[in-house]
Structure formats: structure tokens, C-alpha cells
Amino acid sequence: MTRKILFLCLLGFPAGLLAHGVDDATRQFLLANEGVAVVPYMYIGAKHMVTGYDHLLFLVGVIFFLYRPKDVVVYVTFFTIGHSLTLLLGVLNDIAVNPYLIDAIIGFSIVYKGFDNLGGLRRLFGFQPSTKLAVLIFGLFHGFGLATKIQEFEIPEDGLLENLISFNVGVELGQFLALTIVFIALSYWRRSPGFLHFSTVTNTLLMSGGMMLMGFQLTGFFVTA
Q1: At what angle are helices 160-189 and 69-92 packed, to 10 degrees?
Q2: Domain residues for 98?
Q3: Could you give the angle at which helices 53-63 and 99-117 cross, rounded to 10 degrees?
Q4: Is residue 6 part of a domain?
Q5: What are phi and psi of 183, to 5 degrees?
Q6: Burial of 3 (0-12, 13-18, 19+ CB in 10 A)
Q7: Most confidently modeled of 41-45, 66-70, 106-110?
Q8: Cα-Cα end-to-end distance for the chain
Q9: Does 12 map to a domain?
Q10: Residues ≥6 apart with Cβ < 8 Å to 182
Q11: What pLDDT is attached to residue 138?
């Protein structure tokens, strides 16, 4: 059942969401808002994370073989540090990156983690590269993806820092909620005798989803170049 749900998630999202899509209501609010708006920005941040399946697929890969909540917190903290750093620095310093390339890298991060979970990196390099460092580095790219999208709206400078911090807090709250549900589901699934067998299928699907995202974004990059 879990692998079927994951497969539907990989195929069922509309193409417009692949580049951190923003709905019309959120778009209008971001353009019209002036001053500090803590709660609305927290809500938008949480909503982005819950619906941002590229982020979630990567994090699902990260926690897939983590059995202790303590370990989940450690790895997610590394991702949060990277994500938060580039989100704030990117917007505050007006650092723009091509959104198609950033989202292609995010797609690659999903492929990387699925491949890692299948033991591919150990077989390829003869040792296990630092997973914590990889999560931190990919967190930096995930944050840049969001920062690039936010810059498109030219949010007013008044209250910008406070609103960005509120947005980021919302992102982390949404991330916590989503991963709590995923971790509980994985904990129950691990009790199944077929977990290890189906884990191979699931991580292969993760890689497939990441490759689809990479292909879509690279196509968009070359078409619009």
C-alpha cells in the first residue's frame, strides 16, 4: 500500500507545481502585503512544505532507514540549517539563481538519496560518503529554490526580515508535521515481513520521481534559454 501511494504521489502532481508553484491567493497576498505579518507568513511557509512534494520526497529518503526519533531530528536539523541559510541569504542579498537549474538539482537530490538507500554509493565509491554532509548541502539548494521563487514577487522591504523568519518557522512546522506522519507510517510498515523487499521498490520509485523532476526542469531550462 505504501509503495502504491508513493507512486501515485510521483505521478499525480500537476506540472505547474514542479517549480515551487504558488497559488493565486498566496501570490496576491505576497504582492499586496505591507509590514510584518507573522501568522500569515507562517501559514504560507507551512503550506509550502506540506504541498512541496520535492522537499518531502527528499526527506522521506533521508529518514527511510532511520529507526530512532533522535536520529531523525539530527538529520532534519542539518537539512533545516541548509534550507534556512540560503532562504534568508538569497532573499536578503538578492541572490538570484535560475529556478529550472535549482529544481533540477533538487530532483537530483532525490535520486541521490534513493541511490544511497539502495547501497549504490558504497558500491560505487567503496565507502559511505557522509550522509549528514550531503543532507546539509542539498538543504542549501532546496533553500535557494524557494528564495528564487520568493524574489520573483518583489516583496516590500518593510518587515521583510520578520516575514522571512516567520515564513521559515512555518516551513519547519509543516516539515515537522509531515515527517511525523511519515515516520509513524514507516514505523508500522517496518513491522511487516516484506519491508526490506519493498524498500528496494520504494527507493527505486524515489529515484524515478527525481529523474522525472530533473528531466522536466532541464527541458524547461533549455527551452527558455
Answers
A1: 150
A2: 36-224
A3: 20
A4: no
A5: -65, -40
A6: middle
A7: 106-110
A8: 41
A9: no
A10: 56, 59, 60, 63
A11: 93
Is 94:151 a contact under the CB 8 Å cutoff?
yes
pLDDT of 17 above 60:
no
Overall domain count for the chain: 1
All 3 cell numbers of residue 6?
A: 508513493
Phi-psi map region of 106: left, alpha, beta (phi>0 left; psi -120 to 50 alpha): alpha
Q: Is residue 18 part of a domain?
A: no
Average pLDDT, the chain: 83
Neighbour-count burial for 156-180, b at 16+ CB within 10 Å, e otherwise: eeebeeebbbbbbbbbbbbbeebbe
- The DSSP secondary structure of 84-144, one letter per residue, reads HHHHHHHHHTT----HHHHHHHHHHHHHHHHHHHTTHHHHHHSS---HHHHHHHHHHHHHH
Q: Note the pLDDT of residue 38.
A: 86
Model confidence pLDDT, tens digit, residues 85-104: 999 999 888 887 888 999 99
Largest CA distance in the chain: 56
Give pLDDT tens digits for 119-171: 999 998 898 889 999 999 999 998 888 888 788 777 778 888 888 899 889 98
Among residues 165, 176, 177, 143, the alpha carbon closest in space to that of 73 is found at 176
Which residue is it, cell 529518503?
61
d(Cα 217, Cα 104) in Å, to the nearest integer?
5
**Burial class for 88, CB neighbours closer than 10 Å (0-12, 13-18, 19+):** middle
Q: Is residue 27 part of a domain?
A: no
